[in-house]
Amino acid sequence: MTIDYKDTIALPKTDFPMKAGLPKKEPELLARWDEQDLYGRMRAQAKGKPTFMLHDGPPYANGHLHIGHALNKILKDIINRSQTMMGKDAAYVPGWDCHGLPIEWKIEEQYRAAGKDKDEVPIDEFRKECREFADKWIDIQREEFKRLGVLGDWENPYLTMNYGAEAQIAREIGKFLMNGGLFKGAKPVLWSVVEKTALAEAEVEYQEKKSPTIWVRFPVVTAKDPVIEGASVVIWTTTPWTMPGNRAVCGHDDFNYALVEVTELAEGSLAKVGEKLVIAEALIGEVLEAAKVSGHTVVASFPGSKIMGSILAHPWRGQGYDHDVPLLHADYVTDDAGTGFVHTAPGHGADDYVTGQKYGLEMPRTVAEDGTFYPGVPMFEEACVLTPEGKDGNANGISIKALIEAGALLAKGSLRHSYPHSWRSKAPLIFRNTAQWFISMETNDLRKVALNAIDETKFYPAAGRNRLYSMIENRPDWCISRQRAWGVPIPVFVNKETGEPLRDQNVVDRVAAAFEQEGADAWFTRNPQEFLGKDYKAEDFEQVKDVVDVWFDSGSTHTFVLEGREDLTWPADLYLEGSDQHRGWFHSSLLESCGTRGRAPYKGVLTHGFVMAEDGRKMSKSLGNVVVPQEVNDQFGAEALRIWVVASNYSEDLRIGPEIIKKQVDSYRRLRNTLRWLLGNLASYDASKRVAIFDMPELDRWVLHRLAQLDKVVREACDAYDFHRLFRELHDFCALDLSAFYFDIRKDALYCDAPSDIKRLSALTVLDELFNCLTAWLAPILCFTAEEAWLTRTGDALDNSVHLREFPEIDPAWLNDSLAKKWASIRNVRRVVTGALEVERAEKRIGSSLQAAPKVYVPEEIQALLEDVDMAEVSITSAITLSTDSPVDGAFTLPDVPGVAVEPMASSGEKCERCWKVLPDVGAKADYPGVCVRCADAVSESQATAE
């Protein structure tokens, strides 16, 4: 009887396909999770366990998701899933930021396209359109987030425009009103002429802008020291339009300054022979070159402290600018550019304002909200800084012309520099003195409380602490008012006679109650008397119509989400956003919570970097390097993005593009093939024939040791949110320890050994443990693939999911450091053997390693180590001879494995038709011709079992 030995080999069998087909498979799994209410099951199963609270920073509801959204939400999902699988109750409530200028701007764009005037539309109608716009994009983004595999309470998200949320935001404003932290003041703020509102620093981006530069003389009127009598102090600025607001010049006590007399001029110079100029010594050459001064004499040099306190004249003295201009010390002055003196306009800069407050300088109001100068500003009645379209107006030109006519301009030029722009309209901004509502950083010691809270917070990475700390330490009062329509109004009444805000908790409560019923629209539609009640008359008060900064909205989310829902806890264990949120959400949430609750609303803060194109450039449609999450999903599946997130070091800026995605797809394929190989071999696994660890061969015990090591790594990495390390360890384990080593060795036993062979049963036991561990450890990252693999083996009952599991508990007995050390040496010897055989294969002296029976020269201590090891099995050769003799000339060696050499030799005997080893005992059993004795016995046992 002829035996078809191929049918006697236990080859892997599985329905888990090699080709993933993720774009089709992932939506099927999403539908299954919806059907089984996976999130609800996870919550019910976790009830009573220790909680883990990741509070979702709300994305903005105004467009399709971009790759930064995908990074952020996938990372949050991985964290929540991993915490759940470590035995925590990790509820996740996603949310959206719904108010503010981005949405309002979109509605205004629609109005402009239709020829409508926003100001003619009733505010409640306008706000209704904004709400509908946000609703539309929330629905779209919700589905796009779910497609990425992000699990959460998507049916009950939080929205900052929900009535309850608007009411709570009003209550939070009321708390600052009642504790005295909220006040109205005039300060310079970054102002958008195009959008007609103040902007927060987080809403600002810096782009290159070409600005005029001017060097201007300020004549000395009263010299603190006679050395500068009759001279002019020279300033340099890139904002000529701010000259009407000048009220001081600042220098530095510790700088060395010089009195320079002009002796010669080049053609076109605006300087005058014989005039004396005061300039920082370090900048003399720079300034005189700009002024086209070809000859000069340094009359004197002196420290800045000698001249501070002098009185200068404004360049337009006698033309409506007759005030004295004091020369003052300021720490922020530098002598590495300009002149060593800074023109100071308290209404047009943060540093200028601080100096003005310190020295009691006037802060004139010069520029209106539309970018034009107020009537009555001398010489600038017709001037405009920026047009409604964001283009440069005529103010710089008017200023320069007036300076020339006054004989005050020493030189002019231009400069390309980084300048603040609105990240929405992309138009330049101006610092403008305007009345706004502020939260004081000093009242109630808000700054001190916030700094203490930072010290009590864990930061991932740790450098985030210093960044946020320095921002809080140096920031001015928090400007929370915006001159817009779509947002939560600042629900404050101001006494018309005293100018003081009304502080009455009953009024605050009535406003909040109305907002609960009708939303914040009630502020604009109800009679103000309803809020004021019987104790006050509406005609005595001005109702504030500014809306609150959206950063206050999002900074308050902890109050109506974490405190407002029974399934959540306050404070959060973690806030997680991009590194720009040190000045955004992390910042505003910290201030809001410290100002109302005395501590941060989070225990930890994790930041990730920005996403760049794969060449390191910024993504841009014009460059064609934008990666769209939806397109990646459609082509490769969301797993490609999920694996990209963890394969990258997300604490830094990340890169993505076609080649990087391809690399991640390759990584994914290796992991998938690992799971597929496990599933295929486990088809013949019988749990009743499990082998105890102490009965296992050493190689199998070594794999269990590696699993015990990895269990520690997995848990440490999840606790530290270091999924980059976790992925690298798991990937390398699958690729190097398993596929390239353990699987490579054990496939012979699994395929060819007799069904009852202890080595084969031991290997199957280990494969079962590998499958249980890997599907759990990979589940937070490859949520679709781990689920698919798990269901393939365990069945698709609706109460079954890999995501309802916890990480397996590892038997401490698996750890065996001495065994690991021994097998590290064995693997080194194996590397030398396989290296030698690779040379033989390349030279076509062998085709397969099973044709070889190399002689391996080793030191005596290595030979002793290998006495009980089948090195032929380990090296996948048909035989191996170990020798402690000196190696023959030309034996193969590796520099990093000293003392080991390999002499390649051919195996003697015939090729077994079943296991393909070349052995002398092939055909020894007449009933099983063409196979070795081992295979003959295996076939015999299989036949007997079948009968």
TrEMBL record:
The protein, known as: Isoleucine--tRNA ligase
Protein's cellular compartments: Cytoplasm
Species assigned in the record: Aestuariispira insulae
Family: Belongs to the class-I aminoacyl-tRNA synthetase family. IleS type 1 subfamily.
Gene label: ileS
UniProt xrefs under SUPFAM superfamilies: Anticodon-binding domain of a subclass of class I aminoacyl-tRNA synthetases, Nucleotidylyl transferase, ValRS/IleRS/LeuRS editing domain
Catalytic activity field: tRNA(Ile) + L-isoleucine + ATP = L-isoleucyl-tRNA(Ile) + AMP + diphosphate
UniProt keyword terms in alphabetical order: Aminoacyl-tRNA synthetase, ATP-binding, Cytoplasm, Ligase, Metal-binding, Nucleotide-binding, Protein biosynthesis, Zinc
Domain Aminoacyl-tRNA synthetase class Ia: 29-656
Cofactor requirement: Zn(2+)
GO MF entries: aminoacyl-tRNA deacylase activity; ATP binding; isoleucine-tRNA ligase activity; tRNA binding; zinc ion binding
Domain of life from the UniProt record: Bacteria
PROSITE patterns listed in its UniProt record: AA_TRNA_LIGASE_I
EC number: 6.1.1.5
Comment on bound cofactor: Binds 1 zinc ion per subunit.
Gene3D superfamilies registered for this protein in UniProt: 1.10.730.20, HUPs, Ile-tRNA synthetase CP2 domain-like, Valyl/Leucyl/Isoleucyl-tRNA synthetase, editing domain
